[in-house]
Design goal:
alpha+beta, Outer membrane efflux proteins (OEP), about 60% helix, about 10% strand, disordered N terminus
């Protein structure tokens, strides 16, 4: 009996590593091996390989670093992503446990009354039977690797979910950082429009006094008034934007952010660390979404092995050993032992569903290949776009700064000409509008410049937050 039980176990151990899944080969990346080149990509690549720092090294501002840490601890979307990873891990454990036999202990008490006309003795009687058994319940011996292929597929699905969780972490770091920077930019813009309103109100009061004594026309007075009302409307608009930015940041963090951690303006935020993707686009293969797509491709490849194995015989084993007796007192006496040994083999002869299922797994693999290639192409495009912006945004900021400086001089000269009566207030108004618009555009460009660093960090895959 022991030999009959041990033989299937030994065979299962030796054949457990065998599967009928095709040998996995990573598809060729459908993108160029180097990043794009041209006028838009000046000073964006370094000869050394890409070095994407951890988020704590990438974010150099201490207050922003504290806000991001709070978001990683409290954000509900990230919490759901983490729970999904744990769920996938548990599902993998279930599939892996299928390789092992299930051992059950059972106890039975059977009582049966036999009527007289069915009794061999001609008298009615009541029969009793007591039994206790320990055994295997229909354990499939995985000779052809069907269960192991399913286990491998579950493992790859778990790893894909784990990469999705890492991607959610990187996305949260980038989103919180950009929301924080947007709040800083809007607060700086609010300071600009508030100071502009004060200057416009001062100019309006001055022109009103000049108008009262006949030195300024009513047209100049109304023009000055339009500037005051425009600035007052901008103050209200940016006050609203700042409040909404704070609400959005609180939602991302998952808790109210303390006033001492909020930025006063964009100029007061320490810029994130600059990074470079290097020269080779192979760095994209380490992005979490690309790795997740590859794990799903490996899972589809393993499912082919399970579908192939389903076309071959299945061997299962049911066995038990125990004791039985007609009397409870004699249940564990010598000579009351019982055992069963029931191996079973099922050979599929004609089942078209198995062949269609096999075709489905092959098509699913082709779909996974296309999805993997699309993820690589998308990653390449995102990094290339970020590099194109990085190559030009610094020049745009420098040009805009020069424009602001020039418009400031024009505005100052226009005011002097108006005060001396050389020019009308219309020239002052035009110069002030141009300067005001140029200053607002400069804030937006500086925000775009720092956001570009965050985008490049995110598109290169970042690093799993600790």
């Amino acid at each position: 009996m022991k030999k009959m039980l041990i033989l299937p176990l030994v065979c299962a151990v030796f054949l457990a590593a065998c599967t009928m899944a095709p040998k996995y080969e990573r598809p060729e990346a459908p993108v160029p091996g180097q990043w794009p080149e041209g006028p838009s990509y000046q000073d964006t690549k370094q000869p050394s390989g890409a070095s994407v720092p951890a988020w704590r090294d990438f974010i150099t501002d201490p207050r922003l670093r504290e806000v991001v840490a709070a978001a990683l601890a409290n954000n509900r979307d990230l919490r759901v992503a983490g729970l999904n990873v744990e769920k996938a891990k548990a599902m993998f454990g279930i599939n892996r446990a299928t390789l092992l036999p299930t051992v059950n202990a059972t106890g039975n008490w059977h009582q049966n009354r036999v009527p007289a006309d069915l009794s061999s003795s001609g008298s009615a009687y009541t029969a009793e039977q007591y039994s206790v058994n320990l055994g295997l319940a229909s354990w499939e011996i995985d000779f052809f690797g069907r269960i192991r292929s399913l286990k491998d597929a579950a493992l790859e699905q778990y790893l894909a979910t784990d990469e999705a969780g890492r991607s959610a972490q990187i996305l949260l770091v980038a989103t919180v950082t950009q929301a924080y920077l947007a709040l800083a930019a809007d607060r700086e813009a609010l300071q600009l429009v508030s100071s502009t309103l004060e200057a416009q109100e001062t100019a309006y009061h001055m022109i009103r006094k000049r108008h009262e004594i006949g030195l300024a026309s009513e047209l100049d007075l109304r023009r000055a008034q339009t500037q005051v009302e425009t600035a007052r409307g901008d103050v209200a608009r940016y006050t609203q934007l700042v409040a909404q930015d704070e609400n959005g940041l609180n939602l991302l963090v998952g808790a109210p952010v303390g006033p001492d951690l909020l930025p006063r303006n964009l100029s007061g935020v320490t810029l994130p660390r600059d990074i470079s993707p290097g020269l080779s686009s192979e760095v994209l293969l380490g992005r979490p979404d690309v790795l997740a797509a590859e794990h799903r491709l490996k899972a589809a490849n393993a499912n082919i092995g399970a579908a192939r194995a389903a076309l071959f015989p299945r061997i299962s084993l049911s066995t038990s050993i125990g004791t039985a007796s007609a009397d409870l007192s004699g249940l564990f006496k010598a000579g009351s032992d019982v055992w069963t040994f029931a191996p079973q083999i099922v050979m599929p002869i004609f089942d078209p569903r198995l062949w269609y299922a096999y075709d489905v797994t092959k098509l699913e693999k082709e779909i996974s290949v296309a999805q993997y290639e699309k993820s690589v192409q998308t990653a390449f495009r995102e990094v290339a776009d970020a590099l194109a912006e990085k190559g030009m945004v610094s020049q745009r900021v420098a040009a805009q700064q020069s424009l602001v400086d020039a418009m400031a001089v024009v505005y100052r000269l226009s005011e002097m000409r108006y005060e001396k009566g050389i020019d009308s207030y219309l020239s002052v108004l035009d110069a002030q509008r141009s300067l005001y618009g140029a200053q607002q555009s400069l804030i937006l460009l500086r925000l775009a410049s720092v956001n570009n660093l965050v985008t490049l960090y995110k598109t290169l895959g970042g690093e799993t937050p600790p």
